[in-house]
Each structure stands twice: as structure tokens, then as C-alpha cells.
Amino acid sequence: MKRALVALFAALCLSGCNTFKDMDAGINSLVGQNIDVAFQRLGYPNQEGQLAGKTVYVWGVSRQSNMTLFTPRTTTGYVGATPFSYTTNTITNVPIREECTLRVFVDPATKLITYSDWEGNIAGCQRYAGRIKPR
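RE: above sequence
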């Protein structure tokens, strides 16, 4: 089980580097663009509001899900004097939280994005990273 968690952590770290880089590059590339660019890349937002004279659009996900881990287990022993060995897989469902929020602030007069930011984890933001990545 410990090996499976270490492997999972390593895989998430490697994919997380790209996810976080893509999120940073993508969200920063929206500044100065028309809001329609964000709509084209991300679809329509979950929320729209007003803050400090700006229109704020928010995309996000927050949900609980499960990740299935397969952990190999090798059993060895003897039947009489004959050694034996077999491997089985243990299946474990690990609960994970998927969270990601992207905010885009728009000047209502020009429809240009003046500021944008994001926060979240790999599990939640991975779905947005590919869409928002600069083209």
C-alpha cells in the first residue's frame, strides 16, 4: 500500500507541474483579451457578479470523488517441501477532493479582462489546464 501511495504521489507531482504551469500561463494570457476569449476556452462560467466596478466571472469545481489504487501483493510459502509464490491485487478506493476556481475581472465598458487568478489542486484544475493553455 505504501509503495502504491508513493507512486501515486510521484505521478501527481509530475502531472501537477504541467497542470500548474498551464494554469499560470493560461490565466495570465487572458489579461488584455476580450471576455469572449475566456468563454471560448472555458465555456460559460458558473457565476457572474460585480465587484469594485468590475464584472467578475467565476468558473469552478468542488467535489468529492474516489481514486482507485491497485496494490500488488506477493504471497510466498511452502506446500510441503515445494515453494510457491503468487501475486494478487488489492483494490483500494481513496477519497480525494477536486477543487479549482478561476476568476476573471472584466471592465464592463470595454469587455476587456483586466485581472485574472486561480486556485485549486491538480485533481480539480487539470480539467481547465488544457482548455486555458495559450494557443
